[in-house]
């Protein structure tokens, strides 16, 4: 089995990360399934201080992955964005949303985030 992808830490220090075992626990799955989710582009992970983590904001209040996230990752990867560029874009402030695209994925503006990712160059 191949290694899972992990990006450089391009996020602000204020972004809370969950370790892969914490993600597995939250989702009620084994950690190797989290590795597969990373390989399948359903999640993105970064390495911070030698520890691999997934931004906590990628999960909803029930503990599930925010539904639009895998589609957003796919749209941006299809447009040839690197994982680091995807993370930078979804965590960048955008006054027209308002807030950050990753925060908008939790509400009614999720479709707008996907539309912008498909239409706008970074």
What does this molecule look like?
The protein is globular. The mean pLDDT is 93. It has helices at residues 20-27, 31-39, 68-78, 83-90, 101-104, 110-119, and strands at 17-19, 46-48, 51-55. The termini are far apart. The protein is built from six helices and three strands, in the order E-H-H-E-E-H-H-H-H. It has 122 residues and is mostly helical. The chain has a three-stranded antiparallel beta sheet with strand order 1-3-2. Strand 2 and strand 3 form a beta hairpin. The longest helix has 11 residues, at 68-78. 41% of the residues lie in helices and 9% in strands.
Question: What is the tally of helical segments?
Answer: 6
Which ranges are low-confidence, i.e. pLDDT below 50, for 5 or more consecutive residues?
none
Largest sheet: 3 strands, antiparallel
> Total number of β-strand segments?
3
Helical residues, percent: 40-55%
Average pLDDT across residues? 93
Q: What's the SSE pattern?
A: EHHEEHHHH
**Order of strands across the biggest sheet?**
1-3-2
């Amino acid at each position: 089995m191949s290694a899972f992808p992990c990006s450089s830490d391009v996020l602000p220090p204020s972004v809370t990360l969950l370790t892969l075992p914490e993600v597995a626990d939250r989702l009620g799955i084994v950690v190797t399934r989290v590795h597969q989710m990373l390989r399948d582009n359903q999640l993105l992970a970064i390495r911070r201080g030698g520890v691999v983590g997934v931004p906590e904001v990628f999960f909803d209040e029930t503990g599930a992955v925010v539904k639009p996230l895998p589609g957003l990752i796919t749209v941006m990867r299809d447009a040839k964005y690197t994982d680091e560029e995807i993370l930078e874009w979804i965590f960048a402030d955008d006054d027209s949303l308002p807030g950050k695209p990753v925060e908008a994925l939790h509400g009614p503006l999720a479709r707008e985030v996907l539309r912008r990712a498909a239409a706008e160059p970074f």
